[in-house]
Amino acid sequence: MRSIWNGAISFGLVSIPIKLVNATENKSVSFRQIHVEDGGRIRYRKVCELDGEEVQTSEIGKAYEEADGTMIPITDEDLSALPLPTAKTIEIVAFVPASEIDPLQMDAAYYLAANGVPAAKPYTLLREALKRSDRVAIAKFALRGRERLGMLRVVDDVIAMHGLLWPDEIRAPEGVAPDTHVTVRDAELDLADALMDTLGEVDIHTLHDDYREAVEELIAAKAEGALEVPSEPRKEAGGQVIDLMAALENSVRAAREARGEPAPAEASVTELSPRPRKKAQAAPKETGAKKSTAKTAKSAKAAESGQKKPAASHKSTSTSKASKAAEKKPAAKKTTAKKAAPRKRSA
């Protein structure tokens, strides 16, 4: 890969000669402007607006335009006189956890290659230090006429650098969130969780640009002289979502069918959601005849249990009295017999 910048990484007193290589490439299909009538290519010429003459590249300079349109010429000598210590150096200023970097700051990505055999040892030292510390390096560097912020991290066995936007280049999200207060129900969140679980994870390397492939097929067909180019009908954009629950249920059902996991035709929330509900629903209240029947059954059961206990107590008391009476009766008979005996003898 061709390097776009040569310099060095400044790591304290350690200097590592490196080459900067683009880590990404733009594969979008580009078009030229043509004259529709004859197919001639449209080209642009740089013309001075004062005299109308075409200007050569060697005659073109730069200037800063003020609000009123005044041009302030700036020469290369003016810019080279400015202090720019990072003109040829990627200066590491700190090491921080990767979680401290806001993804909004991410910009272009580069690979840093060791430039020459002597650079291999310090390059490897920095790479292994980054691996072991589980941190990223924050650095300053200059590229294409301006100083930039960068983040160094390890990708496989290579040090990669992501250009970062400066913190004051990130806009605050004021006025972006919905103005109206919206309440989301637990059932809706459960279905959203079910949809996320159904879609699941994906190997990002399997994703591709469908539109770019379609454009390339179109160009190939036109190049071969095809009069009619086959095209797939476009899917109509969905209308305004009125029933959010129905839309979520249909989305989960469609996602499951796409993965070969057909969902029931009339799937309920609990059938579609693989996760347990966070809040248990309260038991339905008994109304009408069911409520009165439950009360009657409860009172009858209480009455029955209440009657059984006194009955057992009464039964044991009666048995005790009967046994005592049985013991007293024989004693009474003996006494009567003794009293009657003198009467018989007097007769």
Describe the global form. extended
Mean of all residue-level pLDDT scores: 77
Which fold name is given in CATH as the topology of the domain at 3-23 and 71-169?
A: Ku70, Chain: A, Domain 2
Helix content: 25-40%
> Rg to the nearest angstrom?
46 Å
CATH architecture of the domain at 3-23 and 71-169: Beta Barrel
Kindly report the spatial arrangement of strands forming the biggest sheet.
1-2-6-9-8-7-5
Q: Profile the largest sheet.
A: 7 strands, mixed, barrel
Poorly predicted residue ranges: 278-300, 302-347
- Structural category is alpha+beta
Q: What is the overall number of helices?
A: 7
Tell me the distance between the termini.
Answer: 154 Å
The ordered H/E elements are: EEEEHEEHEEEHHHHH
| Beta-strand content estimate | 15-25%
For the record, the CATH class of the domain at 3-23 and 71-169 is Mainly Beta
Record field, number of beta strands: 9
Walk me through this protein's architecture.
With about 350 residues, this protein is of the alpha+beta class. Among the domains are: about 5-25 and about 70-170, Beta Barrel (Ku70, Chain: A, Domain 2); about 180-205 and about 240-280, no CATH class. It is about 35% helix and about 20% strand. It has 7 helices and 9 strands; from the N terminus they run E-E-E-E-H-E-E-H-E-E-E-H-H-H-H-H. The protein has helices at about 75-80, 120-135, 185-200, 210-225, 245-260, 270, 290-345, and strands at about 5-10, 15-20, 60-65, 70-75, 90-95, 105-115, 135-145, 145-155, 160-165. The protein has a 7-stranded mixed β-barrel with strand order 1-2-6-9-8-7-5. A two-stranded antiparallel ribbon has the order 3-4. The protein is extended and about 70 Å long. Residues about 280-300 and about 300-345 have low confidence and may be disordered.
